[in-house]
Amino acid sequence: MSRIGKKPVAIPSGVKIDVKNRVVSVTGPKGTLNFTHPHGVSVSVDGGQVCVDRSSDAAQQRAFHGLTRALVNNMIVGVTEGYKQKMEVYGTGYGCAVAGNSLDLTVGYSHQIKLPIPQGIKVTIDVPQAKGDETPARLTIEGIDKQLVGQFARNVKDARKPEPYKGKGVRYEGEQIRRKAGKAFAGAGG
Predict the structure, then answer these.
(1) pLDDT tens, 69-94?
(2) Total domain count for the chain?
(3) Which of 49, 80, 111 is the last residue of a domain?
(4) What is the extent of the structural domain holding 112?
(5) Are 108 and 94 in contact (CB under 8 A)?
(6) pTM for this structure?
(7) CA atoms within 13 A on the CB side of 181
(8) In this predicted model, what pLDDT tens digit does every residue of 120-173 receive, in sequence order?
(9) In whole angstroms, what is the distance from residue 128 CA to residue 70 CA?
(10) Nearest Cα residue to 24 out of 79, 62, 63
(11) Biggest CA pair distance of the chain
(12) Which of 60, 56, 66 has the alpha carbon at shortest distance from 7?
């Protein structure tokens, strides 16, 4: 039995869950999310909790069992609390700005990187411009869909991955970058 899959998911107050034709719809104060669960897995609402069961013990069904339960739980957390990813942009002259429906990143290229912001994602600029290599520009990505928030955050990071010598680039808040020593020069003697 999947240890994650067999745990029921509690439904908080203010959240409504409907299951029709393999489509699980979760509605809460922040919005609505839908998910079509795979064949061989059944989702039911019993009292104040959601239960996930599987039809067989095949390896794929066992995997889908835990996955479905985790996705339903993520949907419930998303419509009640939402998801947030904070990011930092390190580097002299680096910065970020929201222009209309796109995120503009200035990250050391000859041009700005323009990333379209997906529907359902909100980007907030906390600090627009980095000051040297110590004070980064900061932005926050928020939304109710965990996968969408994570994917957009990864797309932002891929615009300029942190380099190992000075650490310049885009990173998640609190992320540690393995630093390398620069070139060592020979002494004056010799």
Answers:
(1) 999 999 999 999 999 999 999 999 99
(2) 2
(3) 80
(4) 83-172
(5) yes
(6) 0.89
(7) 3
(8) 999 999 999 999 778 999 999 999 999 999 999 999 999 999 999 888 999 999
(9) 35
(10) 79
(11) 82
(12) 66
